Structure formats: C-alpha cells, structure tokens
Amino acid sequence: MKNEFLLRLKNVWLLPILFLFFMAMSTTGKAQTVTIFTDQDDYLPGESVIITGSGWIPGDQVQLSITHIGDYIPDHSHSPWTLTADVNGNLYDEWPVGDMELGTTMWLKAQSLLYPLMKADKVFTDGNAVSGNGTMTASPAFVCGGGYGLTYTFSFNGGSGNKWNVGSALTIEVPLDYCWIHRHFLKT
Q1: Quick one: how far is CA 183 from the chain centroid?
Q2: Using an 8 Å Cβ cutoff, are 46 and 97 in contact?
Q3: DSSP class per residue in 85-97
C-alpha cells in the first residue's frame, strides 16, 4: 500500500515536470522557425523597405535593428525599434530609406525580447547598381559637335531587375570635329 501511494505521488509530480519540459521544447522549436524578410534586396533613397516576419509568438515584443556592414560605413547609425507580433505571429513594418544610405549594405536583425533564442536576420542594400549592367540608348542617334541648342536624351534600362541610382547622369561632350553616330564617335 505504501509503495502504491509513492507511485501515485511520483506520477502526480511527473505530469507538471513533463508539461514544463514540453513547453520549453516548443519555445526552443520556435527559435528555429521565425523569419524576417524585406520585399526587395536593393532600394533607392526615397523608397520604403517593407519588412515582414512570421513564426513569432503572438503578442511577443520583437526588437528590430539596422546596422551598416560592408566596405562603406556612413557616419550615422539607426536606433532599434520594437514591433508586436500579431495574433498569427506575423510582423509588418515599413522603414524609409534616406539619402545617406546610398551605396550601403545593411543588416536587419529581429530578436524576441521574451525569448532571446528567437531571432532572424536579413541583409539588403541601397542603390548598388552594378556598373555596366543594362543598356543605354541615345536620341537623336546622329549628332555633330559645334551645334547650338541640341538636346541629348539618354535612357537607362537597368537590366536584370537592377536600378540605376537616383540622380544618375551622363554627360557626353561631342568635340567640334566629331559626330556621335549610333553609339560611336567618328572624326569628321
């Protein structure tokens, strides 16, 4: 009878311990499934980075931070901010890209304030168009130097989904004794 009582007592204590163990395991499992994304990999000044995330615990406070990494580090930093995961464990925010970010690489980090093991990150850039990627067309196709009142119009197409930086400009000076004919300078 005494052994039966001790066995029941062990079972009573075993249930809460198992419950706590499985709760801890489910929280640890969440740390591997949280995400943070941006809607693009590259932005230009004036655009907004759309930030989304999933797999967070509903109501959890998630701290986001942006750090500059790479070769070009501008002379400023960004303060972290906090989002609350919605009832489905999703995050949404928009972050405006400023002029000072041009040419930088940024590291977006998200971390739960309640469960520090729950974290995710994403790297994105600002206006890093690759030199020579894309095409250029000129209109008019035939222009000779020395003329007055001529207008040169250049259109850039940043092939492969890349964008040219805001304010990109091209100046071509046609010398007096040359002509611009279909993307070539010819001496007249």
Answers
A1: 36
A2: yes
A3: --TTS-EEEEEEP
Position 64 scores a pLDDT of 97
* CB proximity list for 85: less than 8 A, separation 6 or greater: 53, 56, 57, 58, 59, 60, 62, 91
Is the predicted pLDDT of residue 88 greater than 90, yes or no? yes
Contact status, residue 63 vs residue 79, Cβ threshold 8 Å? no
CA pair distance 8, 67, nearest whole angstrom: 56
At which residue do the structure tokens 């995961």 appear?
Answer: 85
CA 2 to chain centre: 65
Q: Give the pLDDT mean for 177-184.
A: 57
What the block records as the tokens of 140 is 């008019």
Q: Percentage of the chain with pLDDT > 70?
A: 51
How far apart are the C-alpha atoms of 25 and 66, rounded to whole Å?
Answer: 30
